Sequence to fold (332 residues):
Amino acid sequence: MWNNIDEFTSWYKTNGYPIKPPSKDPIYITDHTYSAIVFRQGRYQAEMYMLAPNWETPQHGHPGVDARIIYLNGTLSGSCNGEKLLDSTPVCDHEAADGTNPYMGAEHPFDGTDIHTVWAGHKGALVIITQHWAEGLDMSSQSVHYTGEPLGPVHAPNIKVAKCQSA
Amino acid sequence: MNWNTLEEFAKWYKDNGFPIQPPFEDPVYITNISYSYVLFREGQYQAELYLVRPNVSSPDHSHPGIENIVMIWGGDVSTSQNGKFTDLSEYYKEPSSNGTNKLFGMHSEKLTDTGFHALFAGNKGGAFLSLEKWPEDKKMTSVTIEWNGDAVDPGHAELIKNERQ
Fold:
């Protein structure tokens, strides 16, 4: 149905963020985030993250998972391969005409080889991360399929980096 | 939109595919057992999504002045109302034919503030919507804040105290 993560992300946004959570997945928790898979079809999925206020991830990656982080609300920034990303904090006092955040729907690409960080400011944040998982990876959560220092002692034991099956 | 009742709002919200339009001013609401976010608010109605940690329960509580319907998205949560436990675990053993939870989109009867309820999450935790109608004289926030009963944890008690000031 989709040829790449951008096609899926465009479809997902255009269709109003469809919700169809797969039954098998639990709620994924770390020291600073709760997340749920809210849509999955084939190798594509959408994961909704709620982020606690005032923390930042270590540098990390999700090998083999191309992703687009879609900002919905809150105070959020981060970096990708050393470059700072969009920072929603400066617009925190200015709501859009429809009562949402002016940046709602803004997205940033993270490819499967990128090393990045995520930073949450004083309101925490709500995002949906659309994802394409390479063939052979066991699909779960980005907080599980994670390389880098863990977010903390809650996160550490949940990390299980899946390996692509060799050809 | 003009909904006359919470039940009308709940039906509209589900029939329209759970619209996501988070109100700008609300932060993430946090306790030791859940994170929640207001996904939609219009007039005195709102939809708040709760993600609940696995293997936890809440104390008995109510939400003064607020009408409340719980609609399940996923996980394995059961509930009690006025001390009567409703075990939903049988529904969580197999997925539905489309891969979702068998109770996905199913909802509770309307909870009023005259009784107490509690939540019990199993190995998967829980994802559910709290669909709410608030009285006009209250600033709309979260039912985590408008909470009557023992707090979930000391941080929750502090949150209730601070937000109400």
User: Anything to note?
Assistant: The interface with chain B takes residues 16-27, 29, 33-36, 38, 40, 48, 50-53, 72-74, 95-96, 98-101, 104, 122-126 of chain A (CB under 8 Å).
